[in-house]
């Protein structure tokens, strides 16, 4: 009698969460944000002439931004619980509008001085210009790679992950330290509202830190 083959198990150690929320805001709010913020694109991108940004904004700057912050509260609590194991109070520290014309791109970067970052899409995106996340450089991975026509790419050896194609009103949340970029936009104008968020406090067995915004 042949013996059964040994049973193998794969454990996904220390995975990094990225959260997508479809339809986080409705079309009326999307249109209102375009109308209210679209005229304030005073900041040119330092690497792409076809990408412009608004000044840094706060939810207190406009009623529509306060409404956006209220819509983001529940997803931020849920995502923060994945990161820190507790339903903390989250606050948005800054928001800014990004408008990318055809031919524009956003260079690889991450966000300092925050814990959770997000992209609220105010337009549909051409799939080739979806937000793309890059594996951290100089990490603890092997120095050698195995990239050739015979190899396949999976979550354990991929160097980048392309986010799902969004619709206007969709939300993407991720840890602020994740490197990300937007490849060259080959489609129509791409508009997003990006933001950074902080918890009100963190408590490590009595060593507590509070963050004021």
TrEMBL record:
It holds the Pfam family 2OG-FeII_Oxy_5. This is Uncharacterized protein (TIGR02466 family). The lineage of its organism: Bacteria, Pseudomonadati, Pseudomonadota, Betaproteobacteria, Burkholderiales.
